[in-house]
Amino acid sequence: MDTKSGKPLLAALCSLLVAVSLPAHETGFPEQTLKRVFPDATGFTLRKKNLTPEQIAKIEQASQSKVQRNDNPLSYYVALGKPADGSGVLGTVVMVDTRGPKGLLDLAVGIRRDGTVAKVVVVENKDEPGLSAEAFLNQLKGKNAQTAITVGKDVQYSGDAKAAQALVNAVRRGLHLLAAATGP
């Protein structure tokens, strides 16, 4: 192969590898994922917020989870629809990721207007398959940033407790990130 014809192929291969290795919430507008979280939404509006170092320190302490480089600026999606209160807003979706003992977990956390978890969707799971199970994820519904969520005590999981706690801490981080971004 001559070097001229190899360069475009090499560039395309490198681009593909970079695109595949990025977390799902960095690859564009994730409408299908957002609809899995809020299926009744008629649309989604992207919002961004830069967090201060003080906010980040508080989030990390409260969530027991390190703020990732792709968490700041925070991108979150407002789910628009027809809720009973007539506000036009169903809730918000925050995309977070974490690393469990066996691999990456990429999550979409749906948060109601009252700050409670509406639904958690596992977008990508390179850790234990059981972490994607509805029976486990449904235990997180109704939890808020102030709720203690400890695996084995507040939520049950039959697999690796460290993997489950990594997911739970990422959900808590999502709750705290949104509270910091939208709060006073």
Characterization of the model:
The chain is α+β, with helices and mostly antiparallel strands. The chain contains 5 helices and 5 strands, in the order H-H-E-H-E-E-E-E-H-H. It has helices spanning about 5-20, 30-35, 55-65, 135, 160-180; strands at about 45-50, 75-80, 90-100, 105-110, 115-125. A 5-stranded antiparallel sheet has the order 1-2-3-4-5, sandwiched between helices. Helix 3 packs antiparallel against helix 5. It starts with a helix and ends with a helix. The model is unreliable at about 5-25 (pLDDT under 50).
Number of strands: 5
Any idea what the shape is?
globular
| Overall number of domains | 1
Mean pLDDT: 86
Rg (C-alpha, Å): 18 Å
The helical percent reads 25-40%
Multimer state: single chain
Strands of the biggest beta sheet: in what spatial order? 1-2-3-4-5
The low-pLDDT segments are 5-26
Query: Strand count, sense and closure of the main sheet?
Result: 5 strands, antiparallel
In DSSP terms (H or I, runs of 4 or more residues), the helix count works out at 5
Q: What is the N-to-C succession of helices and strands? A: HHEHEEEEHH
CA-to-CA gap between the ends? 61 Å
What fraction of the residues are assigned to beta strands by DSSP? 15-25%
Q: Which structural class fits the helix and strand makeup?
A: alpha+beta
Question: Which features would summarize this protein structure in a list?
Answer:
5-stranded antiparallel beta sheet; alpha+beta; 184 residues
